[in-house]
Amino acid sequence: MRKYYFALPLLAPLCLASVPAWGQVQAENDEDRIVIADMRLPEIVVTGLPALRGDEAYSATETMLDSTQSVENSLRDVPGLQQFRRSDARSANPTSQGVTLRGLGGNASSRALLLLDGVPQADPFGGWVAWPGYDALALNSARITRGGGSGADGQGAVSGTIELFSDKVGDRIELGAAYGSRNSVDADLLFGRELGQGQLTISANYARGDGFIPIIEGQRGSVDRPAEYEQAGLAVRFVAPLSDNVELQSNVRAFIDDRERGFAFSENHNDGADASIRLVDRYSDWQWSALAYLQIRNFDVSFGGVADDRNSVSRVFEQFNVPSTGLGARFEVRPPVGDDVELRIGGDWRRTEGTTNENFFFADNDTPRRSRRAGGSTATYGGFVEASVQASDALVLTGGGRIDFWSIDNGFRREIELISPFPGAVRSDEKFANRSGNEFTGRGGFAYQATDMLTLRGAAYLGWRLPTLNELFRPFRVGDDATAANELLEPERVKGAELGVDWDNGPVRLGLTAFYNQLDNAVANVTLDNGPGVFPGVGFVSPDGTYSQRQNLEAIRSKGFEIDAEFDLVEGLTFRAAYSYVDAEVDGTGAAAAIDGLRPAQIPRHNASGSIRWESDNGSGASLSARYAGQQFEDDVNILSLADAFTIDGRMALAVNDRLLVETRVENLLDARVETAVSSNGIIERAFPRTFWIGLRVEIE
Question: What is the pTM of this model?
C-alpha cells in the first residue's frame, strides 16, 4: 500500500478525527449557518441560482450532511437511494460504487446524476463515484431529487439527481481527530478566512485503517487477511464578488485512495483532481450562471484468483493505468417574464475520454502473457428551456424540455502477446465505427397547496444516459467469471410518473410518494453461458466461471413508494424515519430471455432507516440510528442471494468548553453480518463489522 507522507503534517497537530460538525453549533448566531440543535430541514447555502417554484412538483429530500459519517454513508438514510454494493469506500472495489435510486440499478455505473456545486461528478471512464474525495470538502447539505429527466442539469439522471452544496465557512479554524478499532484513524482540518468581501476555504482529510477480513468466518483460508485502506484529500475554494451582482466561485480539489480487497494481488489505487470556475448573477433582473470544469482521474486495479480452498492465490489480471478526463461547460439565463412566471434557458456540453491499459493471462504472478489497451471518447451537448407558472394562489405548474446530441468516437481495443514465442504479436486490433444520435426529453408537474399544511404534487418525466467508456469498450473479470464489453450499446432511456403528498405543521413533517419508472435499453451484464470454453471478447473461461456480456435489456420496470417522516419531539430532540418499497423486474428478450421477469441484480425490495437525535446548544448530544436493507440478488439470474441486514450506529458527544468537544461513537453496534457479495462457489463477503471510535475536535479563532 502506498504511504502518503505529505499527510503527516496534517496528522501531527491532530493525532486523532471524524467528529460532529461542532463548529456549526458554535456559529448558532450567524444567520448563514445551521444550528444542529434545530433539526428542521436545513436552509441550503445557495451556490448557484436559486431553486424555482416549480421544483416543488418533484419528490425531493433536503438533508444536512452529517460530519460524523462519510458523505456516502450520510446519504444512505435517504429512502430509495443505494449504491451498487452495500459496502462503503473503505472496503468496496472503487469501480463498483455507482449510485442509483428507485431500484434502477443493476450495474456499477451511476444512474443518478451526482453534482457538486453544479459540476457532474461521475468518473469519466466508468461512471462510478470516488466517494473518499468528498470527505475533504466543507459541505453544507444535499438535495436529492428522485425521478429522471433532470431538465437543466444534463444527461445521466435516469433515476434522480443528487446535489452537494459547499458551505459558507466564515472565519474559523477547526481541527478534528478520532481513533477507532483496528488502528483506524480519521483526521480533518477546516480553515476559513473572509478576505475583504471574499471567502477562502481550505479543507483536508486523512483516513487509514488496518481493515477487517471481508470473507465471513468459516469460509476463510490462509490467503485471507485484513483489507487495509488509506485515503486523503485536499480542497481549496475561493468565492468573491466581481461587482454588485456578479460572484466568482473557483474550486480546486485533489484526492488519493488506496484499498486492498483482503488477499494478495487485490490492490486498488484511485486518484483524481478537479477544477471549476463559475460566475453567478443572482441579483439582476436577468439572472444568469456560467460554469466550466475539468476532471482528471486515474486508477489501477489488480485481481487475484483464489483457489476453492482459499489457501493459494495467483495474479490473473491487472489494470495498471487507466487515465481519463472530463471537460464540460454550462450556461443558464433567467429572463424577467413577470411575477407569476419563472423561465430558465440554457445549454451544456460535456466530453469524456479515457483508456484502460491491462495485463492478463499471467504465466506467473509477475509475468503477463498478454496486454490490452481499450478506450475512446464520448461527447454530449444540448439545450433546455423550462418554465414555472403560479397559476393560482395554491397551484404551481412547471414544464420544460431539452434536446441533446451525442457521439461515441475513436473507440478501439487492441491485444498483443507479451512473451515468446511471439512477443509483440498482435492478437486483435479493433477500431470501432463512430456513432452519433440525438435525444428529446422533458418533464412537467404540479404542486397544489390544498391547505396551509397539505401539499399535493405530481410529475412525469423522460430522461436518458449515454453508456460509459467502460461499458462500451472494456471487458473484465471477477474471480472465474468473465464479462465482455459491447461497443454497440445504445443509450438508456427512462419514462416515469409519480404522485405525492406532503404534510408540514411545523413539529411534524411527512412525505409520501408513489412512482412508476420504465428504463428502456437498460445496460446490464447478461449471463450467456457457463465455462469451460473460449468465448468472444474474453477468451478462456474456467469450468467454475460464467460468460456474460454487457447488453441492452428490453427494459427494467420499477414501481413502489417512499415515505419520509420527521418529528421535532421537544427542543433539541428529533426523530426521523424513512422507508422505500421497490418492486422492480426485468423485461428480457433474445439472449436475455432467461432473466425475463426476474429482479435486477443488487436491488432489494425494502429499505428503511430511522434515527433519534438530541443536541444541546453547546454541542453535547447523543444519537442512535438504524438501517435495514432487504434481501437482494448478486446475479441477474437470481440464484445467488444476499441476506437482509439490520445495523445500528450510535454517538455521544460532550462539550468540555466552548472550544473543545469529546466524542465517542460506534458503527454496526450489534456486529451484524452485512453481506455485500457472493461468488458462484458460495464464498460470501461482508461489509464493515462493529467499530468503536473516540475523538476530539477543537476550534481555534
Answer: 0.89
